[in-house]
Fold this sequence. Notes:
CATH architecture of the largest domain in chain A: 3-Layer(aba) Sandwich
Oligomer: homodimer
Strand order of the largest sheet of chain A: 6-7-5-4-8-9-10
Order of helices and strands of chain A: HEHHEEHEHHEEEHEHEEH
Keywords (chains A, B): Cytoplasm, DNA-binding, NAD, Repressor, Transcription, Transcription regulation
Number of domains of chain A: 2
Family (chains A, B): Belongs to the transcriptional regulatory Rex family.
Function (chains A, B): Modulates transcription in response to changes in cellular NADH/NAD(+) redox state.
CATH superfamily of the largest domain in chain A: NAD(P)-binding Rossmann-like Domain
Largest sheet of chain A: 7 strands, mixed
Largest interface: A-B, 107 and 107 residues
Strand content of chain A: 15-25%
CATH topology of the largest domain in chain A: Rossmann fold
CATH class of the largest domain in chain A: Alpha Beta
Subunit structure (chains A, B): Homodimer.
Helix content of chain A: 25-40%
InterPro entries (chains A, B): CoA-bd, NAD(P)-bd_dom_sf, Rex_actinobacterial-type, Rex_DNA-bd_C_dom, Tscrpt_rep_Rex, WH-like_DNA-bd_sf, WH_DNA-bd_sf
Amino acid sequence: MATSRNHRPATRASRGIPEATVARLPLYLRALTALSERSVPTVSSEELAAAAGVNSAKLRKDFSYLGSYGTRGVGYDVEYLVYQISRELGLTQDWPVVIVGIGNLGAALANYGGFASRGFRVASLIDADSALTGRTVAGIPVEHSDELEKIIAENGVSIGVIATPAGAAQQVCDRLVAAGVTSILNFAPTVLSVPEGVDVRKVDLSIELQILAFHEQRKAGEEAPLEETAPPAAPPAAAVTKRPDSGPDGDVPAVMPA
Amino acid sequence: MATSRNHRPATRASRGIPEATVARLPLYLRALTALSERSVPTVSSEELAAAAGVNSAKLRKDFSYLGSYGTRGVGYDVEYLVYQISRELGLTQDWPVVIVGIGNLGAALANYGGFASRGFRVASLIDADSALTGRTVAGIPVEHSDELEKIIAENGVSIGVIATPAGAAQQVCDRLVAAGVTSILNFAPTVLSVPEGVDVRKVDLSIELQILAFHEQRKAGEEAPLEETAPPAAPPAAAVTKRPDSGPDGDVPAVMPA
DNA sequence: CCATGTGAAAGCGTTCACAGCC
DNA sequence: GGCTGTGAACGCTTTCACATGG
């Protein structure tokens, strides 16, 4: 999801296609591309759903927002669907992007083959460190961040990827937006604030791990008692009501009653 | 979201805490940690919500699932909340993780400071390329994938990160699971299939960009007519009904009426 | 008074189950 | 007969608005 208070009015997804569906279209597209490469002519919703890791009812519902592109009793024409979904996602256009921050992550992104094959063209790699300037990563020269505005203007870039350290992210974001970028993919662990009309999506490496840890804890906590590490910090003051179900124990020792 | 047909029964979130709330706890935790470092003693739901990029009603509702940890008329005690959320997420425990696939992305993950500071300890970096074996990345030695099972057993690893090319991902996943890993964070662009009881979360770099492109296209399409690149592929055969609203035009030229 | 905590209402997303069409 | 397309039911999530309590 987008990070800031802007984004679209939240209600009513773009062009009538629900946001949840949009988020799955790339998944379907990948599965379809694989089928296409194996020259499979048609798929049923059941098969395609399995390949994409969703259930078939959801897939059919998703496709129904795009139009009636299947054939009853038969399934979907693979090539045709590939085209329709690509078009819907805007991948039949060319999207020049810039990647700002060429550390390991920026380099990984530059090397990632999944971009080029989907209409994304890395117009430039940008870093503030002049030691990197002039080098090439994945065949693309790294340019200095002084050139940022120029690069964006000359290439008509509207999508920017931020892979800088957290401290630099907002500043980079501001410059990108001022230069005309209206969509930002943010890998820095910060909440970016952007003006109305600019979309921000966030990918946070550690958040995903934390969510896994939560579930992992539950699995373990169900049988093994397993003690916590440090004793708790100081609670605030008064009523610490803690919910009815006090889980697998491990609650704080209820300290300092005002 | 998790990728495979397994995961929990979907309905009824873990321990009564809704999944959507769990996904936001790391966000709150980060904002709270920042406040804590600035020695701020208390926050209101309004302030904290702004820092985390959500609205205050949502935040209060989220916290209400954890317990009544605030003080009416005052707000929340920062230190106390940090502890409560950490505990809820299981971050007061030590979580050894392995990262498999030490390319640019794996290296970026190994270098990512956000892990260590949140209870995650990279027990080992694993790669199939013996040329890497023995080197260290972020101070952690890279070990050969032959050792995978041994490493997992010896370190009690239950969380694995897959940063290999797509082709190797399922195989690596199978070995991780067989060795006892029950939570997997997958960066490879593949749908992993895992047995019941194993959680998979996916981070897909190109999917995020594609979602941005979708919205970007809409912004542009609203005013500029803007022509598409290639003419469409062959449609299937019969009824191509296309929905009532035919968007900003740009539909396929309605070909080949059987 | 002020900000939390929470029922109740509204909005989305998913699933069901079957009508419709090939 | 088989598979798509879709209304209707259901459940989860968000938002509202206010009672509650420091």
